[in-house]
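Suppose you are handed only these lines of text.
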Amino acid sequence: MKLWQGRFEEPTAKDADDFNDSLPFDKKLWREDITASVAHARMLGKCGIISAEESDGICGGLEAIYADIEAGNIEIKDAEDIHSFVENELVARIGDTGKKLHTARSRNDQVATDFRMYVRRSNDDVMAALKEIITSLTDKAESGLKYVMPGYTHLRKAQPMCAGHFFNAYAEMFMRDLDRFAAARKRMNVMPLGSGALAGTSYPIDRNMTATLLDFDRPCENSLDGVSDRDFVAEYAFNASMAMMHLSRLCEDIILYSAEEFGYFEIPDAYSTGSSIMPQKKNPDIPELMRGKTGRVYGHLMAILTTLKGIPLAYDKDLQEDKEGFFDAEKQIISCLKIMAELIDNMQLRGNRMKKAAEGDFACATDVADYLAKKGVPFRTAHEVTGRIVRWCIAENRTLQNMAIEEFQSFDEHFDIDICETVRAKNCAEARTSYGGASPKSVKENIRSLKKRLARYDD
Ligand code: ARG
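From them, the structure of the protein bound to arginine can be written out as follows.
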């Protein structure tokens, strides 16, 4: 039975119903819908808008429906949307009293409230998954303390760094994501229920009571905004897009660094795939797929922003389009974060390959220039001298590590015997003790700080 049948002589066409109905996807909101309805019914009873017995009867009926859905005793079907389903079911069970539930309420403030509660819970799930991945990354940073690896700019070897520095960099990104989801949660935790269809209601309702029952910080202050605000969906989609972008960059680095040419990381077998024709292959399908899924999460952000942009106040049916993209974005971001945390936990670091790479290709050249500059040679001159040394090494097929002290001295008299130690990749990394730098000492500091910031989110 439709909730609005009275006005119509003819039934809606079958194809119009199929087009209009949201039950196939909004049935996911059944918990929130029933919980919010119980709070509404309690408030109606407390405020004397319905009698205490009626309120109890409605709440008892709703709680029984909740238990039956949870137990799988009833199937959610044959209704326009989840709100109609629950109300029809209630009336079928407790009779005419059930028809009083919708007093002082509209589906407009109802769906805005249900969906906010759903997104709020999902926001908490993402935050939990972000905490997990940050922990996996700082743990991996800890095991990387003993290794040196090359850092890159322009995807060309730049300077050696402690391997832990790499993992902390991603932990910082996900920490910002965590902060963003936490900030969005605060903003979304405002209750639209009691806004009615758009203009509030003439019944003496107590919105603070329902807000408290439903764990909202407060009721919204403008009913027109209350029923039409979906900023929280767009914000979630943006925050998820940003986190997917960070994941995608991490995927790209892992794919690259696990390739034969680099060989710094070994992706666990459990998170790799093979080839149907090439027996030797170990493919990084999991990070590739994650990188690919980033595009579709960005798509959901564009979709919700575009849906919202031309909607006149207040509720319009366009807003029903807020859900499907969200449900997909939620599924992608949470599963990707969880799988990546597992992959990181089980990924091996190949210390020898990383060290060899960090010493090759003159990645220690900056340290040669810095060595001279610290002895009083102006940095620009030291840079030029080092450039000539590198050019000489390339021509002579030599490395900075196998140069003799006399050879260094033939370029500049400021070189002493300790230059031969200075150009060891490990020493180059260890020297970068500046705050936020790549030395093991600075990386340890960074881990400590990340853990402290993460602990602020413990409940
Ligand atoms: N299924 C609708 C939605 O998701 C519920 C609200 C319907 N309100 C209305 N005035 N038709 O937005």
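What can we learn from it? The beta strands are 148-153, 156-162, 190-191, 218-219, 265-266, 348-349. The first strand starts at residue 148 and ends at 153.
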